[in-house]
Amino acid sequence: MHQALYRKWRPRTFSEVCGQEHITSILKQEATEGRFNHAYLFCGSRGTGKTTCAKILSKVVNCENVVNGDPCGKCPSCLAIENGSTTDVLEMDAASNNGVDNIRDIRDEVVYSPSFLKYRVYIVDEVHMLSNSAFNALLKTLEEPPSHAIFILATTELHKLPATIVSRCQRFEFRRIATDILTSRIKYIADQEKIAINDDAARLIARYSQGGMRDSISLLELCASSGEKIDVHAVNETIGSAGRERMMDVARAIADKNFEFLFGEIDAVVTSSKDITVFWQDLISLYRDLLVVKTVKESAKYLDLTDFEAKALSALAEKFSREMLIYHCRMLEEALYSMQASGAVKRIIAELCFVKMCDDTLSTSNEALLLRLSKLEARVASGVPVKSLQDKPEQKKEPVKEVDTKAENEKKAVTFTQEPVREIKKAPVSSDARSVKPLKAWSEAVQTIQSVDKGAYPFLKKTRAYIGEDNRIHVLNDGFGLFAIDRPDIKSALAAALSRYLERSVMPSDIIYEQDMGKIRLEDDNSDLDAFDDFMNN
To answer: Helices in 319-365 by DSSP H: which ranges?
Structure first.
């Protein structure tokens, strides 16, 4: 019967374990001195050697001829543990044996001396799956076990274990194995198994395994099933990945707003029966690397790339700003969640996401507003004039009768005066007054606050806003609820919305709240503030 490669090449000694020297060195020292703990806790991600080290430890504590901290593998004790003929070493999967009765069985039999070996060893894999009652039953045994019993607990989710269990064990943290170590091991196993593979393919397999030795060896065996030489294309075809270069072409098309290419890529993935989710995860991984390049000076320390890939990535990063990358990452993340929760609509989710990524005006998220605001700030900083509403060409209208423009403007002029005026009547504008005009986009800007703070929206809805001669926004309110609207986050959201509607940069400091309604005077009316309200509403 065929034996899987990851089982065939499982280490038999601590010296054969790769990438966990900070753990194996301590265990070898304990074995050399014959000084063992009564309980061990191995935690870490999958495929990093937890169960392997547990089995080696069960042999070394019972080995009759320890060699430099490693089991000899030749004595009767090592051979009995290796072939599974002894009952003194019990390996239990807590995922399927997680009840209190299973732990009670261990508690009842642990008091008996081992029948053949020096120590009775209990290996409990995925121990975090035990129930609360099972943990309580195990607690007393871990605290005061018999001198001939050793417990080895393994878990991938340390945070799910009770603190009372963790505190009674000698804990070891298994790290993800480095890509270089995985690559070297893959090439060694491939050479021993007569599997043809090039260096780039071995490194790609190591990168896809994400630090897990078992995953890398399993992927190597899967790629070798065709019997042909393993190259980068074969690895991508086996995994269902589009490849790094193709992902860079997709990102380049997003930056260039090449919709034809993007829709063609989605169609190619769907028609080839590949999973769009895998394609999407590869794209997210690329954007993560782009964000690292754009943010960190020495990005090579945080990127697992060749020199050629690093140069190509740096050139691609020049097409994006950090605000754009953050906006795109959020869009990709939301689309991935939608794909995982949906069935047959993954394609349309991907296509809609690409359209929004290419046109940030289609999204009302905070990231999209931040991106648009950063574009305006960049134009202002570079000296490029920002297009405003006044710069828009006037629409053609039917000819009208000539009117006295100066007199008409005097009728509509609104000023803020320094002294309260109880009667509104015709009067020349004082020298200390400030001319303002109604802000028509204010109601649209206020609508966006509903997604920011629903509590502040009712107070803002009752306000009116005007543009002064200094281009600042004067917001009229009665003072009630000012605590809810005069806040930095509210002003920032209003400034972002007004920047979009006015097509010019509006800063939060440009928004000023005016509370004294009595200081408002119309220059051409014979009514009080009620007439002023009617005038502004019209």
So the answer is: 322-341, 346-358
Query: What is the full per-residue pLDDT of the chain (538 aa) written as tens digits?
Result: 678 898 999 999 999 999 999 999 999 999 999 889 999 999 999 889 999 999 999 999 999 999 999 999 899 999 999 888 888 999 998 888 888 888 888 888 888 888 889 999 999 999 999 999 999 888 888 888 888 999 999 999 999 999 999 999 999 999 999 988 999 999 999 999 999 998 888 998 998 888 899 999 999 999 998 888 898 888 888 887 767 888 899 999 999 999 999 999 999 888 887 788 888 998 999 999 999 998 888 888 888 777 778 888 889 999 888 888 988 998 999 899 988 887 668 889 999 999 988 887 777 677 777 777 777 776 666 655 555 434 444 444 455 455 455 555 555 444 444 444 344 344 444 444 456 678 777 888 888 887 777 778 888 887 888 887 777 888 887 767 777 788 888 888 888 888 877 777 888 888 888 775 444 443 333 333 444 444 444 4
User: Would the pTM of this model clear 0.70, i.e. be above it?
Assistant: no
Alpha-carbon distance 127 to 378, whole Å?
A: 55
Rounded Cα distance between 320 and 275, Å, is: 27
Tell me which amino acid residue 528 is.
D
For residue 101 the two structure tokens come to 């009765």
* 175 contact partners, CB below 8 Å, separation of at least 6: 19, 20, 22, 44, 48, 211
| CB contact burial 215-227 (16+ within 10 A = b; e otherwise) | bbbbbbbebbeee
Half-sphere exposure of 96 (CA within 13 A, CB side): 3
- Cα separation, 14 vs 72, in Å, equals 11
Instruction: Give me the helices (H) in 342-412, please.
Output: 346-358, 366-381, 405-412
Question: Please, are residues 463 and 485 in contact by the beta-carbon 8 Å criterion?
Answer: yes
Tell me the C-alpha distance between 288 and 459, whole Å.
41
The span from the CA of 308 to the CA of 409, in Å, is 66
CB 67, CB 99: distance < 8 Å: no
CB atoms within 10 A of CB 274: 16
- Amino acid, single-letter form, for residue 496: A
Q: Write out the DSSP string of 424-465.
A: ----PPPTT-EEEEE-TTHHHHHHGGGGT-TTTHHHHHT-EE
Domains of the chain: 5-174 (3.40.50.300), 179-239 (1.10.8.60), 244-296+304-374 (1.20.272.10), 410-537 (no CATH)
